[in-house]
Amino acid sequence: MSLCLASAGMVKALSVAAFTLVWTHSVEKVDWQEDWSVTPHGLELVQARVKGSGAGMEPPSEARLVNGWFQWRPKRGPLPEVVLGNSTAAGEWRLCHDGICRTLSDILGRPVGINVTTMRMCRSPPETKRNPGKD
């Protein structure tokens, strides 16, 4: 499985089957984390965590406090895509995989700025460049 990120005309494919999306709430200034799986049916939100509550980020009633984080398993099916808006007040979205977190700008290789980023399962494997005459 691959995750495709698209922003401001740039597309990047990542060979990941699962990842964590992290951001800082613009008002409360606390982290929010979501664990996602890339499936043949789309992107599936597996678990969500928030380090506090208030200002429109109240955890649902089924959330449990574990090691300082409210954690819960959202009940929704896979999504064909997830659109991430950017705010200069909150800092950048970060994508974590295998214990390494990187900003979307770092992953895409240029500043995302206020452009939206769309995440989706890649429909086909990433293209590889071949050397002509070397086949």
How would you describe this structure to a colleague?
It is a single chain. The protein has one helix at residues 104-108, and strands spanning 3-7, 10-14, 18-24, 31-39, 42-50, 64-66, 69-72, 82-84, 94-97, 100-103, 117-121. Strand 6 and strand 7 (69-72) form a beta hairpin. The chain is mainly beta. The protein is globular. It has one domain. The longest helix is centred in the last third of the chain and has 5 residues, at 104-108. The strands form two sheets. Strands 6-7-5-4-3-9-10 form a seven-stranded antiparallel β-sheet. Strands 2-1-11-8 form a four-stranded antiparallel β-sheet. It has one helix and eleven strands; from the N terminus they run E-E-E-E-E-E-E-E-E-E-H-E. Mean pLDDT is 85; it is low at 126-135.
What is the total number of structural domains?
Answer: 1
Strand content: 35-45%
Computed Rg: 17 Å
Low-confidence stretches: 126-135
Briefly say what this structure is.
By secondary structure, the protein is mainly beta. It has one domain (3-121).
Write the layout of secondary structure elements.
Blueprint: E1 3-7, E2 10-14, E3 18-24, E4 31-39, E5 42-50, E6 64-66, E7 69-72, E8 82-84, E9 94-97, E10 100-103, H1 104-108, E11 117-121
Antiparallel strand pairs: 1-2, 1-11, 3-4, 3-9, 4-5, 5-7, 6-7, 8-11, 9-10
